[in-house]
Input
Amino acid sequence: MEQFKNMTALIADDDVDMTTQLSLQLQKMGFKVLIAESQKETEEIMEATKPDIAIFDLMMDNKDSGFILSYKMKKKYPDVPVIILSAVTSDTGMMFGVNTDEEKAWIKADCYLEKGLRTEQLEKEIFQLLNKEHN
Amino acid sequence: MATLNVLIVDDEPGIRSGITRILRDFSVDFPFLNEEFDFNLIEVETGESAVEHLDAGEVDIVLLDNKLPGIDGIEVLEYINDKEFDCSVMMITSYASLDLAIKATNNGAYNFVPKPFTPTELKTSMEGITKNLYLRRMTKKMNTEGKQIRFQFLSVLSHELKSPLNAIEGYLNIIKERQLGDNVTDYEMMIDRSLERIKGMRSLIMDMLDLTRLESSAKKRDVQKVDLVEIMRLSKDTMSPLAIQKNIKINIDVQPDHIFYMADRQEIEIIFNNLVSNAVKYNKDNGEVSCVLREEGDRIRISVSDTGIGISEEDIPKLFQDFVRIKNEKTKTISGSGLGLSIMKKIAEEVYHGTVSVESQPDMGSTFTVTLPRTPTMGR
Output
């Protein structure tokens, strides 16, 4: 599967195991992968490069790094799809999503996914966000 | 063991009895929450009789089918919301009405189980909803008791426990699917990382246990005369394996030879182990650790210095907060729970009315000092 050849994915997570696994998956899909381990590093990369898609962890240097980065990404590159991938979910006591208008008003990501999701699910979202046919 | 009342609302007798069969002998326990739940199952056929049971006020969890003969599931859900019943709702719905299930979730249902479901799927969902209900009730209770901080602690804790699980699960799936081919050695890094994450998780759990012991009022403290010098030597022995690996020398300098103190031995061990293990973990290879123990008037001073990576001035205030780990290039590979110092501080200050302080210079090393009053006025 190399539908995404010549495309760049920016991933940000302070958990080195998450970036390892994500980048393996994305490379298999054909992406060139840029890895950042902090909000600051992500912002630096965003200054220099426009990725084709971005996947951000929520809690990094700040508890809401993922939200801040989504906001900044959309401001600079409105057309770049952003996924927040987080372990912060209903069962950790906080629930976020981008389903209601109220949430969409302040969470600028296109999609909010839970960590631990199956690789196929993430793949499906990426296909959808980049308008590609999933085979 | 607590029992939760589960109301099963479905017009299909087969589904009702199926659920009862699966959940009859099932229980949910959360070791770190120190609670176990089993279920008392109540079967009803219609939304109307569900409402009767809800009004009686004895329902904790509702397993709710949407398509019911009279008023439907969504209406029951709205009723629960309107009346603000203290219960959690899980929708049971067929695949065809996925849309509806999502709507229901947004309307306050905790989640949904698609029909048909396997026993495992139902049990997993029950675990989730039980934990959610428990945490929600805890929050309510804590809010009224002004203990919101404690809840934040729990919620960060579950986040901290999930992260290593996600990492390990991810690696195992990659290995299972042979994503890097059939050569076993190609997966070595992933196996090592998984083991490392398990180690980190274990240390988090051990620290959690320390903290639980400390905060549980049920715990009987065993205060007796202990020799601080002996405990200091024990801590050195405990850390020796890691110290040898990094070729670090641990020196102990005590005066006088024995310092007796009225204390709970375990608590003192936690203080010393944290001091010495940090001094080794955050040291450089071939470094040194100096442990100084002194009786000074009406106080006892314990200082542990290292020749390690040090801490920047701006990071020092963060050091003693729960789960805070200073993240930078130098600490990246060091595993820890982020609880050690906060536990130590709690014991030293809250239990023994002592003090904890730190002096540090980046790249030169740090000195952590704990002082304990000679005649302790016990905190609890």
